Amino acid sequence: MFTGLVRSVGRVAHIDAAPEQRTFVISAALDAPDRILGASVSVSGVCLTVTAASERDFTVVAAFETLARTSLGGFVVGTPVNLEPALRVGDALGGHLVSGHVDGLARLRSRTARGDAVLMWFDVPADLLPFLAVKGSACVDGVSLTINDVDDEGFSVGLIPHTLAVTTLGERAVGDAVNLEVDLLARYVARLLHAAVPLGPPMAPGVSRELLERTGFLSPQGPQP
């Protein structure tokens, strides 16, 4: 589990391609607790498992599903990536709950300077549009963002100078693909509604006078004059 608050930006240092998977060596220094074998790390919004690490870099493997659904299949040596280690119990939840399970690719439609900030519009797959809401949350390339507006094709966000400086989003150009994870709660609410799964035990029948009399809460009412 992550928060969408990027800790650092690394770069792809080496790629080994194999059938149905790729191994990436990421040039970045992880703290000692975060570089142990089996630790989880978000790489541009994708939850991956550390398979090897040193003080200067770490290794992760992406398999067929990840390569098909995310931007990792397009990584080359030198590609910059947003990094966040897994959330620990007691850490501040400054962004929003992020699973690192990318729902699909969005594309940067436009970017417009608004003073020192930048307004970005992203186009998203039609099946993900229902999960987006004004003032809701979205995770873009591992960055927790608040949605400013929504239209029939996507959503907009405003990026402050700090976000532009410490993540890869400042380098994004119109047409670039980004990893999108919709809000975790919205995903499960939609699934429950689609499956018509009851959210609790069946509701008790309504309270009536007959029920209260039968259970002793009221005296039986005699015949009316």
Provide structural commentary.
This protein is mainly β and 225 residues long. It folds into two domains: 8-85, Elongation Factor Tu (Ef-tu), domain 3 (Beta Barrel); 104-195, Elongation Factor Tu (Ef-tu), domain 3. Helices cover 13% and strands 38% of the residues. It is built from four helices and twelve strands. It has helices spanning 64-69, 161-166, 184-195, 209-214, and strands at residues 8-18, 21-27, 40-43, 46-53, 57-63, 80-85, 104-114, 117-123, 137-140, 143-150, 154-159, 177-182. The strands form two sheets. The chain has a six-stranded antiparallel β-barrel. A hairpin with a 2-residue loop joins strand 1 and strand 2 (21-27).
Question: Concise description?
Answer:
This protein is mainly beta. It has four helices and twelve strands.
Secondary-structure map:
Blueprint: E1 8-18, E2 21-27, E3 40-43, E4 46-53, E5 57-63, H1 64-69, E6 80-85, E7 104-114, E8 117-123, E9 137-140, E10 143-150, E11 154-159, H2 161-166, E12 177-182, H3 184-195, H4 209-214
Antiparallel strand pairs: 1-2, 1-6, 2-5, 3-4, 3-6, 4-5, 7-8, 7-12, 8-11, 9-10, 9-12, 10-11
Keywords:
six-stranded antiparallel barrel, 13% helix, Elongation Factor Tu (Ef-tu), domain 3, 2 domains, six-stranded antiparallel β-barrel, 225 residues, mainly beta
